[in-house]
Design goal:
Length: 205
Amino acid sequence: MTLIPKVHKYISTSLILACCLFSACKQPSDGSTPTAEFSTSGTTVTVKNLNADSEDRFTLLSLQNQTIIPNSDSATAKWDIGFRKTTIIVNGGKIRTGQGGMQRLTDQTYDALKEAPASGYRTDDAEDNLALTAKSGEGWYLYTVTTIVPIKDVVLVVRTADGTKYAKLEMQSYYKDGVTPSITAQTRYYGFRYQLQTNGTRQFQ
């Protein structure tokens, strides 16, 4: 892929964003291992700058170990959730190895959610039938012509790849360093927080 030429001022901002969404307004991935920054406060893990820039590979994350899992282990149950551009996958379903699942809760604040649902989890059953719909307004984000922002009061509940634990997750940013969304800010760097249930129940502390 070649770099997109310098855009002249007569080209609309919506066209610029379309380029960013579908062909990437930056260098293609160099094949290096993606990175992320993890910090913990109490039972909440905050993730910043999770790099989901690859055109053809997902950045795979173990929620339990707070680590990026190599793509060479994509056919194992070592990872729970994966990211590529605006698409999020889960390690469960017909096209996955794990026993994971995901549920999208709307009109739900992160802090108010005290227990993971007992049922209703979706899985990745085909590339065009994922647990989380990869469309504006139907998944985790809104495409607002010039920016991509998380939908307010949407919480993702993830069943881990081993099928025994649950995490609630709130998306916070799609921009590097969590800067204010803009057409010039660097995208495909996820920021979010999550809490993993580890006591054998579905209850969050």
